[in-house]
């Protein structure tokens, strides 16, 4: 018995993709394996670590908690879509490089997308707010010290 | 003159890739529609005999290609997995099979392996395999293992895999003679490395060349390569193992082979398709490895100054169901608990015990957090007994700066003497006291007390054997473009190797930093290597790269000297250009030297055209002289006599809530000596990450098994890994550099240090905070949660009332 496939259209980083996926295909898998956008990472597949965070209409969502079919009609942004069209790093990416905000880099895409949305809503966070902004994402390597610095540095770059 | 890069916080070159989503982790490899995906059926029982496995329903599932159980394995694949580091004391070593044969010994043990079109279908198929088990009573935890009224392996009496003893004298006599004595019983629970990227393996069989390519998220590609070749009956030269970007290791990825690391290549060769296995988070909890679970009994004899006259330690190590990694963890505890101290007489005895739980392999710090907890709790207990300052008691026991090299009289985990190379512990103590404000603390405590707040301060010291051998190698190749390609065989999992190694090459070779490209963990580029663990990358590969760069430079100078008609001694290499000192006109760039090193007569590119202006070599001799090889490259290896010994001290100020027993970190300070720093920014990053894992182990993380051997918290919802909200807001760091005499750069390892003293330092500080209201309350088990502290207060109040 073969699994029924659904035709879906996903708009990712400004490009519209047509794909055929089973109803149960996770958005994270569709992005990574159907579209080859492997920047979005899966650390837990149960919505806790935040590594799979992408932006849907600008808001952070966990791609492991969403089916690909549920993302139809949303404008998705993945880590691959954060840099400028000419390849210039966004302020948040630049700040991570300057502040040593990453080690293995596995959690990094989720932090970058989360902070991008966070700073759009609150471009000049206090130190406490900067910590709060990343409080839903796990990182096993950095101890977060430099990620907080990166949030503050990105705010500075954006000011 | 170019500035020296060693010692400067150069920004990481690898970040550009990671920041753009262009990292390449195991699951990112071979993204092609033809890849097949594997899923594993795992035991639901902690201890059971397998009566029957029925896979009849599985191959009907559309998209399933194959299923393996133990009965399908042949040849070496049907033998138990290797015991990687045997030790004579490990009299009853046991390892599992790639797929369980006859019995399972922990929840999560691999029973069957399914390969299908995608992971979803493979999991569907796994769900249709029917296994009949005859469930046996399990052994869970150290106490049950010691009681031994049930056995994990029928042929291992008392559940004792190993018993090992070392001593430096007659401890009983020394104890009896000591004017004062104390006894402590200390527990540490299990935790786990828990990298954000789990395990993952991809394999491709190339029928045209009869070769197997394996990508795996490992800390040792050469090790995986060797074992895959042996188990699959291939020549080593038929197997390439490539370690792409690795999303964290922390020890768990040093163990090899995992069953899947063999089954994926087997499936790829059998099915002639690319096959991938990517572990999910629950699988990582129940089928990779844990560490830390140990209980300790200590008897110590000392004098009125707190000097250690006799230290007698017994401990019991829970190594889980199998011992693939030998006794590394308990041997480290048994030797490294001595830290910066020198007891007159020391005896340590441990038993390594089987339980029906996930096996143990090293986790960052590897046995040292437990050892440090044991030793530092002892120091605190002595200080309390004598009514002395905790720093004073430590200071009287320090090995002094003029006593190095210092031989502790024991054999370390690498089979070499436990001999410390260098250090200055009194200087570290001064630094940490200043950094944390040790002497000002009483005033702060009084101020807080006036507001009804409880604060406490603690400190803990450690010494860490880093940079263990046997060796590491490097290959440096200068291309005709002037670009420098460097390969070292050990892997990288986020420590910035591409950056620090490039710093070393640029310094030694005189090339531009931006021209250096470093490849790690690819057996095609450097087939001789050990791996990334035990804080050894900078010491081992760093030294090898430095030596290989030096060798390459010698060749550069030899060839350039001929071309420039100068003596090699008169040449310098700056920013990729070789010139005669004092005569800037006479110069040749590295790319051109590379052309000259390879006496072809083809003008491929600008560099080769430029090279025609120079003539090299005596026309009366062959174009490649004897003792010379074409190409501008150098390979070298570094193999030290023994480990380097880094050291450090942590201090913390905590607040404990009088009502809720909540524990808040007010200040965290670290002083650290890892010899010469290559890149301080990266070293500090390592400390930050280590401290976070240490806080986790001290306050939050534990593996909660029920009595039937089910892991109750096998998810990130329930295993409390710290978020930013749980780590200190700011860590004060200071460095001391006592260069190691054992390697050309004077460096020691830095990767694990941050995690070692945490349980000890928190126990000390929490006890201190509680001391005023509950005198005599002692903390003997870690981690400690607010509710545990709360109950400890109640129990203590009852005892003392
Ligand atoms: S992978 Fe989605 S939150 Fe962890
Ligand atoms: S950098 Fe490795 S998990 Fe965050």
What is the N-to-C order of secondary-structure elements of chain A (H for helix, E for strand)?
Answer: EEHEEEHHHH
- Summarize the largest interface: chains and residue counts: A-B, 59 and 58 residues
Largest sheet of chain B: 7 strands, mixed
Total number of strands of chain A: 5
Give average pLDDT of chain B, whole number. 93
Helix content of chain A: 25-40%
Total beta strands of chain B: 29
Bound molecules: FE2/S2 (inorganic) cluster
Q: Spans of chain B with pLDDT under 50 lasting ≥5 residues?
A: none
C-alpha Rg of chain A, in Å? 16 Å
Q: What is the CA–CA distance across the termini of chain B?
A: 74 Å
- Helix fraction of chain B by DSSP (H/I, runs of at least 4): 25-40%
**How much of the sequence of chain A is in beta strands?**
15-25%
- Biggest pleated sheet of chain A: 5 strands, mixed
Number of separate helices of chain A: 5
| Largest sheet strand order of chain B | 3-5-1-12-9-10-11
Structural class of chain A: alpha+beta
Structure overview:
- The complex is a heterodimer of chains A (159) and B (801).
- Chain A has 159 residues and is of the alpha+beta class.
- Chain A is 33% helix and 17% strand.
- Chain A has helices at 27-34, 91-99, 108-121, 127-133, 145-158; strands at 5-12, 15-22, 53-56, 59-62, 75-77.
- Chain A has a 5-stranded mixed sheet with strand order 2-1-5-3-4, with helices on both faces.
- The relative contact order of chain A is 0.15.
- With 801 residues, chain B is an alpha+beta fold.
- Helices cover 28% and strands 24% of the residues of chain B.
- Chain B has a 7-stranded mixed sheet with strand order 3-5-1-12-9-10-11. A 6-stranded mixed sheet of chain B has the order 7-15-14-13-8-29, sandwiched between helices. In chain B, strands 18-26-27-28 form a 4-stranded mixed sheet.
- In chain B, 58% of the residues are buried.
- At the A-B interface, α2, α3 and α5 of A face α1 and α17 of B.
- Residues 42-45, 47-52, 62, 64 of chain A line the site of one FE2/S2 (inorganic) cluster.
């Amino acid at each position: 018995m073969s699994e029924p496939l659904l035709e879906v259209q996903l708009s990712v980083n400004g490009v519209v993709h047509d794909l055929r996926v089973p109803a149960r295909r996770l958005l994270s898998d569709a992005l990574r394996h159907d579209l080859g956008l492997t920047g979005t990472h899966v650390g837990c597949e149960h919505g806790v670590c935040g590594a799979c965070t992408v932006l849907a209409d600008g808001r952070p969502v966990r791609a492991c908690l969403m089916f690909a079919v549920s993302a139809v009609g949303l404008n998705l942004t993945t880590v691959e879509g954060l840099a400028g069209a000419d390849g210039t790093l966004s302020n948040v990416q630049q700040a991570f490089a300057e502040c040593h905000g990453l080690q293995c880099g596995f959690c990094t895409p989720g932090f970058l997308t989360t902070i991008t949305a966070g700073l759009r809503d609150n471009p000049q966070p206090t130190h406490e707010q900067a910590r709060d902004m990343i409080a839903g994402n796990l990182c096993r390597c950095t101890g977060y010290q430099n990620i907080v610095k990166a949030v503050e540095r990105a705010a500075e770059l954006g000011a | 003159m170019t500035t020296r890069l060693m010692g400067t916080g150069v920004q990481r070159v690898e970040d550009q890739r990671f920041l753009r989503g262009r990292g390449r982790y195991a699951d990112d490899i071979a993204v092609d529609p033809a890849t097949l995906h594997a899923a594993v059926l795992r035991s639901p029982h902690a201890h059971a005999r397998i009566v029957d496995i029925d896979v009849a329903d599985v191959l009907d599932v559309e998209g399933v290609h194959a299923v393996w159980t133990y009965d399908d394995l042949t040849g070496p694949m049907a033998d138990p997995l290797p015991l990687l580091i045997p030790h004579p004391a490990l009299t009853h070593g046991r390892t599992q099979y790639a797929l369980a044969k006859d019995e399972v010994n922990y929840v999560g043990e691999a029973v069957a392996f399914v390969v299908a079109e995608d992971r979803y279908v493979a999991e569907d198929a796994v769900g249709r395999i029917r296994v009949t088990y005859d469930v046996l009573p399990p052994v869970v935890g150290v106490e049950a293992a010691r009681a031994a009224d049930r056995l994990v392996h029928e042929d291992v009496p008392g559940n004792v895999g190993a018993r090992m003893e070392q001593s430096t004298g007659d401890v009983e006599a020394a104890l009896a003679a000591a004017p004062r004595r104390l006894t402590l019983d200390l527990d540490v629970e299990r935790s786990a490395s828990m990298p954000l990227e789990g395990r993952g393996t991809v394999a491709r069989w190339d029928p045209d060349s009869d070769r197997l390519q394996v990508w795996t998220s490992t800390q040792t590609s050469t090790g995986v390569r060797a074992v895959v070749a042996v188990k699959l009956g291939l020549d080593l030269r038929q197997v390439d193992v490539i370690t792409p970007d690795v999303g964290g290791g922390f020890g768990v990825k040093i163990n090899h082979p995992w069953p899947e690391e063999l089954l994926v290549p087997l499936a790829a060769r059998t099915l002639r398709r690319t096959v991938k296995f990517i572990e999910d988070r629950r699988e990582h909890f129940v089928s990779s490895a844990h560490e830390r679970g140990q209980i300790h009994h200590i008897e110590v004899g000392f004098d009125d100054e707190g000097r250690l006259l006799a230290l007698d330690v017994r401990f019991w190590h829970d190594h889980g169901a199998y011992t693939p990694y030998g006794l590394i963890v308990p041997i480290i505890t048994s030797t490294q608990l001595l830290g910066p101290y020198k007891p007159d007489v020391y005896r340590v005895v441990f038993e390594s015990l089987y339980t029906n739980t996930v096996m143990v392999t090293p986790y960052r710090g590897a046995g040292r957090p437990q050892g440090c907890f044991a030793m530092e709790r002892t120091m605190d207990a002595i200080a309390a007994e004598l009514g002395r300052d905790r720093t004073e008691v430590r200071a009287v026991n320090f090995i002094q700066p003029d006593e190095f090299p210092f031989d502790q009289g024991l054999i370390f985990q690498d089979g070499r003497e436990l001999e410390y190379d260098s250090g200055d512990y009194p200087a570290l103590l001064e630094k940490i006291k200043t950094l944390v404000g040790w002497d000002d603390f009483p005033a702060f405590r009084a101020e807080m007390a006036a507001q009804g707040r409880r604060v406490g301060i603690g400190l803990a010291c450690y010494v860490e054997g880093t940079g263990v051998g046997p060796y590491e190698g490097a290959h440096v190749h200068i291309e005709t473009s002037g670009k420098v390609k460097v390969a070292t065989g050990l892997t990288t999992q986020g420590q910035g190797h591409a950056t620090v190694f490039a710093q070393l090459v640029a310094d030694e070779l005189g090339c531009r930093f931006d021209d250096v490209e470093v490849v790690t963990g690819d057996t095609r580029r450097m087939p001789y290597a050990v791996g990334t663990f035990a804080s050894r990358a900078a010491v081992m590969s760093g030294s090898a790269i430095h030596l290989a760069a030096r060798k390459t430079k010698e060749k550069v100078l030899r060839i350039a000297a001929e071309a420039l008609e100068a003596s090699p001694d008169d040449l310098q290499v700056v920013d990729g250009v070789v010139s005669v000192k004092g005569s800037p006109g006479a110069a040749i760039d590295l790319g051109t030297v590379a052309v000259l090193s390879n006496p072809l007569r083809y003008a491929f590119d600008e560099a080769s055209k430029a090279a025609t202006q120079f003539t090299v070599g005596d026309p009366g001799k062959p174009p490649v002289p004897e003792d010379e090889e074409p190409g501008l490259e150098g390979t070298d290896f570094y193999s030290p006599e023994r480990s380097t010994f880094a050291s450090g001290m942590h201090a913390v100020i905590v607040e404990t809530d009088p009502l809720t027993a909540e524990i808040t970190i007010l200040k965290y300070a670290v002083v650290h000596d890892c010899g010469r720093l290559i890149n301080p920014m990266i070293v500090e990053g390592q400390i930050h990450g280590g401290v976070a894992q240490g806080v986790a182990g001290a306050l939050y993380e534990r593996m909660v098994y029920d009595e039937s051997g089910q892991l109750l918290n096998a998810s990130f919802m329930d295993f409390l890994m710290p978020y930013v909200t749980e780590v200190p807001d700011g860590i004060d760091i200071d460095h001391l550099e006592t260069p190691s005499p054992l390697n050309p750069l004077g460096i020691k390892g830095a990767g694990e240090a941050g995690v070692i003293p945490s349980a000890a330092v928190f126990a000390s500080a929490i006890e201190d905070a509680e001391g005023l209201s509950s005198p005599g309350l002692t903390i003997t088990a870690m981690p400690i949660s607010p509710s545990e502290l709360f109950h400890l207060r109640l129990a203590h109040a009852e005892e003392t009332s």
